[in-house]
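To close the chapter, one final illustration. This time we ask the reader to focus less on the individual chains and more on the assembly as a whole: which components sit near each other, and how the overall shape emerges from the parts.
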Amino acid sequence: MCLCQSYGMTLLDSSSSASVATDGHVEARFGNRAPRLHPQWLREQSTEPGQIEATNRQRLFTPLDVDPGLVAVDAELHGDALTVAFSDGHRCRLSVAALMQRLGWVADPEAPPAPIAWEPGAAPFPTVFWPAIAGELDEPGVAEATVDFLGDFARHGFVIIRDTPTTEGTVAEVANHIGYIAGNNFGWVFDVRNKPKPTDLAYTAIELKPHTDQPYRKVQPGLQLLHCLANESDGGDSVLVDGLAATEAMCREQPDLLEALTTIEVDFRYDMGTDVAIDRRPVVQLDSAGRFRQLRFNTKLDFPVPADGADLDAWYA
Amino acid sequence: MCLCQSYGMTLLDSSSSASVATDGHVEARFGNRAPRLHPQWLREQSTEPGQIEATNRQRLFTPLDVDPGLVAVDAELHGDALTVAFSDGHRCRLSVAALMQRLGWVADPEAPPAPIAWEPGAAPFPTVFWPAIAGELDEPGVAEATVDFLGDFARHGFVIIRDTPTTEGTVAEVANHIGYIAGNNFGWVFDVRNKPKPTDLAYTAIELKPHTDQPYRKVQPGLQLLHCLANESDGGDSVLVDGLAATEAMCREQPDLLEALTTIEVDFRYDMGTDVAIDRRPVVQLDSAGRFRQLRFNTKLDFPVPADGADLDAWYA
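The assembled structure is written out below.
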């Protein structure tokens, strides 16, 4: 397992080539990569007229419309284009850059910026000023400020929004400006208050250690906003922890312990008195390429489920 | 891989026992199961006074509060209770039924009913009448009708709601009654209409084959409502397909092809002209016990990403 695996662009060089194998697959060579490309897969990438809808670029045909015995009969590579002719008479010109993206070798340029783990002495917290993003996207500067703000959020996992009004409801106004609030059992907005019958520890004065919110939901909050209107307590510093940096540090220093966190499933269980929300996931989820996808962490609500015969020594180490 | 694996209740019998191993783990025997239980894990299940908050049952301590060298010093099993004494002086009485649930051997009674795959000649579509669930939960019969409705949805994956008004906005009213609408780029409600510049094939008269909606989102719609106000077309039967039944049939008849659908990741990609939404997942997701979790299927938007050196023969078979 390696979190640091990078997917660099494979540059085309003079050794790039394409030919058709006897079984109708295309044997391509893009620089130092030599994939064997399935004819149906290549056929599905076609963007020739009639193959995709013009406005939304969605495919107009389905697998049932394609001859199951389809093969490639000719393939040529010139510059950035792979041209393929098929046994059904179709011929298409495919962009090598697009193919590399489809094969997962290069990042999709439409993807948000990759996350960057925090380091000691890292740059100050990213900041945006609410008036700069509060307007319509066609007002001068608003689109640019919004892209900067969302880019910072994707890279660093948080952004401080300054100059918001300290009136109730502002947090919902800010959230609805950015996207759509997802409601839940707490309603549209959660008021952090000290309550006599606390249905959640967040309604008490108990110190909450670092955690991720709502790990007991199939869908954890994606972008979460906190807005402090009034602080009547002494002390109580807010602590932020970067789950990506913690995971990468574990990967370097204690890979066997990280292995336990990626494989042992945990019941995150929230009993709200009238009903219960549960989701079962590992604490750290990696994608199939071993890259960090997401983290669930809450030491008040977690019940690891050991596999039959397995022990939890690595979990509790 | 087996989708049909069942997790029956393990009944306690006279061979049930518990003892403490030399390393402080508890060696329990519940009927025919003999788990080795970690002392920290057992300590975290404690519901004795002071260990959990009374109203919300959330744990009051964290791993940092527990001696890392904690061991069990005594364990006894009587009837449905396992009593454990720990080296930190704590002593707790744990319900065996709750432990079995925590170990994943029996379903959580708070979990929704398990899904049932459709079979040829299955019972008629489950139906609910809108007036029966439209009221407040404390009105007579409303809570029962709502539980029946949601139970049918969990079991069968769909329910027909009859007697809804044919006025615009009803679908949002029904949705907000059940939970919270999740908005997206289409807004809060998607109007299926024929549009001149279709940003989605659903805005065209093109026949749409069976698919799941929005597979390009990290979060697919959970419970989706369709409401037909007026039908100005001839023909166009609606077709429903049960993804669970299809997956189980593949598991029985072509397990190697199902394997391809559970392991090959797919970029589901929706280009809406101004921006793009992408999520990369396998078509069929199973949980760690091999049980069906979810399905993404859309032959207009799917771009399988073969692993390096792997071929897509099984995918296209």
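Confidence is low (pLDDT under 50) at residues 1-10 of chain B. Chain B is about 20% helix and 20% strand. With these observations in hand, you are ready for the problems at the end of the chapter.
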